[in-house]
Structures are given as C-alpha cells and as structure tokens.
Amino acid sequence: xxxxxxxxxxVPDDTLIRIxxxxxxxxxxxxxxxxxxxxxxxxxxxxxxxxxKAMGITAGVTDRKSIREALAMxxxxxxxxxxxxxxxxxxxxxxxxxxxxxxxxxIIGGETTTDSSGGVxxxxxxxxxxxxxxxxxxxxxxxxxxxxxxxxxxSFTQTVESELPAIVSVVGEINTPRIPGVKQILESQKKPVxxxxxxxxxxxxxxxxxxxxxxxxxxxxxxxxxxxxxxxLQYLKGEGVL
Length: 242
Description:
Residues 20-205 form the Electron transfer flavoprotein alpha/beta-subunit N-terminal domain. By secondary structure, the protein is of the alpha/beta class.
C-alpha cells in the first residue's frame, strides 16, 4: 500500500513558557508544533480520501503523550527518532534515512515550527531526498501520479503541480486539525511506535537562549487634552523622538 508521511516535531508548549530573571522557564508540558498538527490532519485526510497508509515521523523529543495524540488523530504508525541534541542537518539526515526505507507517495510537514520558526527544514530535507518541493500549501489534491497544490503567497494564490513522490509544507489555513474522541484515544494505544536512538552529533549547537525584553518607561502624562498633547510633544522632543 502506498503511504503518506506526516512530519511532526514535539516542542515545549509556547503558551506556557515564562520569562524569568535568568532566562526562559522551559519546564512546561510538551505539545505537537502548531503547523505540524495541520500536516498530520492533512495526511489523515489523504489516507481517508485516497486509501493511503498514513505514517508519522518525529525527531528530537519523543514525548509519548504527544505521539499518542498524533496516532489518535488517525496516523497508523509513528517512527520516533530520539535525539538529545539536534540541528537541521542531523535531523534531516536521520529522517531522510527513514523515508528512504518507506518510499512514500507524499511527505507533508508544517511550514515552520513554533520553537525555532526557521522554515528551512523542509527545503533541506527535500534536497537530501532529491524530491520536488512545494511550500506554503493551503490545499492539496492527488491526481494519479501527480499532486496539485494551491500556494498561499499572501497577495495571490498560485496553483502548481508536481510529479510524485514529493514533499510539501503546509500553512495553517489548509485545515482544522481534528480533536480525537475517547474511542480514537483508546485505539491509539494499540498502534505501533518504532523508536530509534540517534547518536548523531549536531554541527550547530544552541549555547544560550536569551529572551527579548522591552523595558518600558511607564511615563504617565496627565491633564486636559490640549495640555496633555503639549506635554507629550515636549517629552518626545526631549527624548529625541521628534
């Protein structure tokens, strides 16, 4: 059976990360990166529409709760590559090795991840696999041995086609990820998860994470409107803004 692969990354829940005096508090629960959920949803829709096997590959943190969520959404199987340290190159090389053994019809990933926002991983992986790539995809259709995609290029929509196999990166508007029910959550516990331990050493390592902060002056200008405007203008001139 032909397959479609959804790539997803498990990241710290960015809505719960707090800035502390010493940096960032990353001791928060994990979640599937936002756009990667769209990738999973689209792979499952491809499975349902074209009778494909929907597989998932994740690399880095292999949080079991997040993997079970991906399976509960409808993936049939997940390959989890454990990597203590990772960069784009080593991650792509590890995933490419797994993809070559699966020979999928289509690979779907998110346009970017919520932890790094790099947006270069999918093109790099496509280069390693020598697959054609389509980015910023907001709709997908398979037509025999081709994929047709609509690309969101902000001010206009571009429709393109490519031979298969191919790799695409999707934007959030492509779908609304489903929320699994109790039945799907229970069934996910029976689905296979293949775990691989990677010893690859990244060439680029994160040495520090420093939050970007703004120190506000908290100046309050009071008085009637005309007086307040004059005071504001004088203050801005004093600050060299005007």
